[in-house]
Request: fold
Amino acid sequence: LDPHHPDNNAEYSDLQNQEIVVSELWTIWYGERGPLNEQRLRNIEETLGDPSQWENAEQQYLDLINEHCKSDGESKLNLSLWVEPANRLATLLYLMGKLKESKAWCEAILEAKPWHIGALSGIVMVCVQLKDEEGAKKYIEMGLPNLSAEMRNARKAWVERNVKNAKEQLIQLQSSNEIYEKIGKAFSTEIVSTDDSNSSWQ
Reply:
């Protein structure tokens, strides 16, 4: 997304490079939970051409979200685990005219991943439809600056800031996973110890 990035193809225009990068981003976001779940997500999307299927698609998106973004025993969703079903749901709700619900999902997505360019674009569209000028202005300012010459430095800064945020989030997630792994091992050891003790009681 940074037009100055050395990995950009020098033979391509800025726009061509950005199209490639954005396509790769969508591929990553769709496939975060593996190819089988990616296909489930894309199968839902294939039904959206028929408005009579929208309510069914809405429920399927919710099922995916609850399956992958909710930890055992917890009611709060963690959309950072897989954000794309929520983003597709927000888009569908916009098409269905459920603007306030769509906005709420966009806000939740951006809380989890402030750099999600799809949700940033989508929430501006929702705010415009809701005639929420203040909200539209807020999210336009949060969005990725355009490719014009005068905005190149701002775009570079936006990318650097959000890469930093993404790395920090990844470190936190890795730390949490390590903690859960230690708890799991300790719990397993305790169960084995208890089983050994019980086996001596005849």
Remarks:
- Residues 3 and 14 are 6 Å apart (CA to CA).
